[in-house]
Amino acid sequence: MLTPALLQRTTVVVEYDNLADAAEHCEEIVERFKPIGLEALDDELIRDQQLQNMNVDSIQELPHPEGGAWLVVQFGTDSAEDSVAQAHAFSDWLTGGKGYAQDRVRIAKSEQEGGTSEHLWAIRESGLGSTAFPPDGKDHWPGWEDSAVPPDRIGEYVRRLREVMDKHDITGAMYGHFGQGCIHSRLSFDLRTANGIATYRAFLEDATDLCVSLGGSVSGEHGDGQQRAELLEKQFGTELLQAIREFKAIWDPQWKMNPGKVVDTYRLDENLKLGTDYNPPRHPLKFTYEEDGGDFAHATLRCVGIGKCRVPRAETTMCPSYQVTREEKHTTRGRARLLYEILRGDVVTDGWQSKEVYDALDLCLACKGCTNDCPVNFDMPTYKAEFLYHHFKSVRPRRPRYAYAFGFIDQAARLASRVPELANFATHTPGLARLAKLVAGIDRRRPLPRFAPMTLQEWFARRGGTTNPSGRPVVLFPDTFNNRFHTNVGVTCVEAIEAAGWRVVMPEQHICCGRPLYDYGFLDTAERYLLRVLHLLRPQLRAGTLVVGMEPSCLAVFKDELPKLLPHDDDARRLTQNAYHFAEFFQTFGIEPPQLDGKALLWGHCHHRATGGMNPEQDLLEKMGLKVQNLQGGCCGLAGSWGFESGKYDISMECGEQALLPAVHDAEDDCVVVADGFSCRTQIKDAGTGRQALHAAEVMKLAREKGAHAVSRLPERGAAAAMPSSPLRERALRVCAVLALSAAITAVGVRGARR
Predict the structure, then answer these.
(1) Angle between the 380-391 and 332-344 helix axes, to the nearest 10 degrees?
(2) Is 261 left (phi over 0), alpha (psi -120 to 50) or beta?
(3) 88-110 pLDDT, tens per residue?
(4) CA 222, CA 600: separation in Å to the nearest integer?
(5) pTM
(6) Rounded-to-5 percentages of helix, strand, coil across the chain
(7) Is the pLDDT of residue 13 over 70?
(8) 49 with 4: CB under 8 angstroms?
(9) How far is residue 566's CA from residue 572's CA, in Å, rounded to a whole number?
């Protein structure tokens, strides 16, 4: 049955002292005002979200955020005026006819009407994610997650259900569709010990008796399944259940179809996912898993199966590979299940060495989208790195060639930067380039980036260091990509910080965060890289000097991977606390940018979105005077080195086509395309869009040097800075030196062969 969409919507939030009081009011609201949605939240859900820093700003929009419960009432019509009028009529009835204080009621228009109702609904939508593993030390499980009673009995039901919970010493939040009488909850069942499971059974039996006595259903929305099927006789009675049994026997005389469900059921306390025999192996780990008590097995239980990773449209970052393949094993949920099975050992019997699990994780772009977009923040990039670390510890599986080529890209680039002219000749000359790609395991269709004629560190040293020797110091981290490939971006970052009056400090030695190492499981090496970073930056870290990153994925290592690998290192903690993404630095310290009129299409690197978000970038560009479209959805598809790997090119490009590439194609010629990520800019260029994305620092340079009205057709042509380069004589000498050395080595080899 089709019903009108009623897309013009307005929300009213009402605060109560407790959830039962809120529940008792629902029937009258539904009958009198006929809202299209009526949901409830309790204070425990709000507290769980606050402790996990979820929806922080949205919670402050609730009337009395410190209250006991809230009803979220939504009105919908075909016109915004009618929707708002219904909301005001409801509010007036509460404050006038019912005597509610004005500050207990808040009206929120929809986002399309300039309001924030979507923020309030985000609190409700985060209910399961925030209550499944709250930070109170107890895991909360389903079992009584969608019981329902007639709406006129829901207030009584809430009160008496709380009494049943108290009787069995069980806690948990309540929320849900109170307009329909359906309550959601995840409760603190102990499903690992005999006593805990006995309490679980006793609670379900008592709760069922209560629910049925009020004319309710033990499964109001999700279905009985195996967990509550044993309780159906209490709900339907022996006679009706026998009729169902006889009907099933007619169509399924051999009892082959879905046995153990509805009739002749399994017991509710058998075949549990956990149970008294649950004791998965605990292997030594590289990451700490602090939020899971250091237990990888507990981390694999985090997925609660909501399936937000299965959204086929690129609305959020998660999950890029699924958006292309549409296969369950390429969702965060599917991969989570496989990781659980590694430790369980029943289905996946070869543990860390499983090729099937490796194949499923191989298409994970490690984009970190799930760390924000997943309701329970399932950290698949970390789990993938942990799996690969153990997977390749065995001598049997060997890492592919590209794992070494890209995992140690800093070392390869370090060597190539000594003679970039020859390195570029070898990687961009037909024939030689194809051979180089074959050796490195790179897809032959993927162009290779060129090495810069001079590194950023060399340029900085040759100019004599900073131009602001008396300014406040800030370390600009010379990541491999902006140091050895896009040196021009690094130069503009230095100039932007110095233009703000700060003194740029740059390490002189080779330094690398080791970001690509995580993607291939080189975690011991990654740890050594981080220890070297801390060693080289120790004086600045202990002096409280800020560290600013030009490349989002590299700076994200300091915010994310560093505390997971070195949780007890005080210098590591100092670096994490003082590390800032480029635009985040400008926003945090209130630095006014130069002015620039025009439009900008902003694309955020996936790791940037996950470790700070894109609001600072948008804020920076808008302060400049640009009208910004903050593009969201999916991943660029290159994902660091992932899109370079042999066999990944097609999926890489299809990932980009989900959101980014069409938007760049459609962007007007006078629109500035902004992308701070090296891989994002590379993908935009490689995809043949005809556009070149700029780093935020390059946009600032354009504004500083050419004025507020500098944006014209294809603004990147006027904004891209030239690559700094050594004098021609110096470049010629180093090429000749390498050629002479090669010739000498060849001659010695030939002479030796003749002997």
Answers:
(1) 40
(2) beta
(3) 999 999 999 899 999 999 999 98
(4) 45
(5) 0.91
(6) 50, 10, 40
(7) yes
(8) no
(9) 7
Burial of 413 (0-12, 13-18, 19+ CB in 10 A): buried
Q: Is the pLDDT of residue 578 over 60?
A: yes
Amino acid at 385: A
Contacts of 419 (CB under 8 A, 6+ apart): 734, 735, 738
Q: In what order do the strands lie in the sheet with 579-581?
A: 503-505, 473-477, 546-549, 579-581
- The secondary structure element, H or E, covering residue 581 is strand 579-581
**Dist CA 69 CA 21 (whole Å):** 8
Rounded to the nearest 5°, which phi and psi values hold at 32? -85, -40
Q: Is residue 495 within 8 Å of 701, Cβ to Cβ? A: yes
Residue 472 DSSP symbol: P
Which residues make Cβ contacts (< 8 Å) with residue 340, sequence separation at least 6? 300, 301, 303
What is the residue type of 354? S
How do strand 69-77 and strand 8-16 relate by DSSP bridges? antiparallel
SS3 429: coil
Half-sphere exposure of 612 (CA within 13 A, CB side): 29
> CB of 565 within 8 A of CB of 286?
yes
Residue 21 identity: D
The predicted pLDDT at position 661 comes to 97
Query: Do residues 546 and 474 touch, judged by C-beta distance below 8 A?
Result: yes
Check pLDDT > 70 for residue 287: yes
Phi first, then psi: give them for residue 446, nearest 5 degrees: -90, 115
**Cβ proximity of 679 and 685 under 8 Å:** no
Q: Residue 734 and residue 724: Cα distance in Å, rounded?
A: 17
Q: Which two tokens stand for residue 431?
A: 């024939």
Cα–Cα distance between 186 and 133 in angstroms, integer? 9
- Can you tell me the distance from the alpha carbon of 596 to that of 500, in angstroms, rounded to the nearest whole number? 16
Backbone φ and ψ for 211, nearest 5 degrees, come out as -60, -45
CA distance linking residue 672 with residue 692, whole number of Å: 9
Strand 626-631: give its sheet, edge to edge. 626-631, 598-603, 671-675
pLDDT digits (tens, 9 = 90+) for 467-502: 999 999 999 999 999 999 999 999 999 999 999 999
**Those residues with Cβ within 8 angstroms of residue 61's Cβ, 6 or more apart along the chain or in another chain:** 106, 108, 116, 119, 120
Do you find a cis peptide bond into 512, omega within 30 degrees of 0? no
Rounded mean pLDDT, 653-665: 96
| Cβ atoms 250, 264 nearer than 8 A | no
- 3-state DSSP call for residue 714? coil
pLDDT band at 313 (very low <50, low <70, confident <90, very high): confident
Structure tokens at 455: 């590194």
